[in-house]
Amino acid sequence: MTHDDATQPAEATPAPPAFEARGTGAEPRRTGPGAEPRFREGAGRGTAPRSGPAPTPAAPTPRLRALHPPPATRSNALPAAAWWLWALGLAVAASRTTNPLLLGLLVGVAGYVVAARRTDAPWARSYGAFVKLGLLVIAVRVVFSVALGSSIAGTHVLFALPEVPMPGWADGIRIGGRVFAEQVVFALYDGAKLATLLICVGAANALANPARLLKSLPGALYEAGVAVVVAMTFAPNMVADVLRLRTARRLRGRPTGGVRAVAQIGLPVLEGALERSVAVAASMDARGYGRTAQVPPAVRRTTNVLTLGGLLGVCAGSYGLLAAQGAEYGLPLLGAGLVAAAGGLWLGGRRSVRTRYRPDRWGGRAWLVAGSGVAVAGLMIRAAVYGGEALHPGVVPLTAPTLPLWPALSVLIGLLPAFVAPVPVGAKESTR
């Protein structure tokens, strides 16, 4: 072979032509140069192979995309005040009834929304602690009724306890004696109402970010709001520490129950929760929280009068709304108190020199969440005024509670946040 022959490019070997065998059974199919034959199952049997990519589902229309809750981000997260308004609306509804069926429905609504929209933050784990606290309240209420007696005079005696004789100056106080079924049922109803109130507050703690709630406070209440946020972060951090320490003890093979285990866990839990709360307060103080501007003395006195008077009006109006006979004067007092308090807070906010970084914006979904709680409270108050017999089942004589239709439907409005609120990362959507 000469030098010229060595420099000539070698002739390319022609590739065998692509062919596709057709026949019966599984037969080879060549699609290109050097390609291995691929076998098609059932070729020639009338079953054509599927070609092209798999069909994709049709994209949702813009209208359906607008109704579908988006993933939660920092920009579209609901304000903490919206969750608190929703939870307080459920609590007001629970205060208007002792029907255990309605109370259980309220607890179920709150629990469903929490399960669908809570995050993995430490405060989101406090809901279970509030449920256990509610069960403890019911148990304590029943025990006190059995041990100390009740004003409910029944006819069905369950058992009798040894009665302690009391002196003459303690007339009306009884320790022990006969226990009636009517008084136990009344204690159960009363304890269930208080437990439902606590569970509704626990739902707000599990869903609302305390730091975002602080951003929503007016400037006049900012210093008090810092203290409230520090106090609110104490309980969630304590629950997180309990779970962490119990897991660590379980991994080391140590017992997690009993009096001794509780005593060994209690001190580290309290210490850790206090250290975190103090660290939050120190970080806020280091960033200049609490600085105020100079205002004239007259403005300061007017602010104090309006704020104090407005808060007293709000307290009196709220008591009137919660009481059975105070609905006629509770709403006017509450309205007047809110107006006076708003004026005082607006004047007090003039001495605050702070600014807000990324203030919370109330969008349509936030208004729907808050409005659902307000709607539940308003409809339950109306049901209690115009025919509240079914809301308060009788205990003398004992009657089985019934589920009233319209109050139950009004409670179900509280499920709206589970379908309109943004879906947290890692949470399971409730609309699917």
Automatic annotation (TrEMBL):
Residues 7-21 have a biased composition (Low complexity). The keyword Transferase does not apply. The chain crosses the membrane at residues 100-117, 129-159, 220-243, 305-323, 329-347, 367-385, 405-427. Residues 1-71 are annotated as: Disordered. Keywords: Membrane, Transmembrane, Transmembrane helix. The keyword Membrane applies. It comes from the Bacteria. PANTHER family: COBALT TRANSPORT PROTEIN, PROTEIN ABCI12, CHLOROPLASTIC. This is Energy-coupling factor transporter transmembrane protein EcfT. It comes from Streptomyces peucetius.
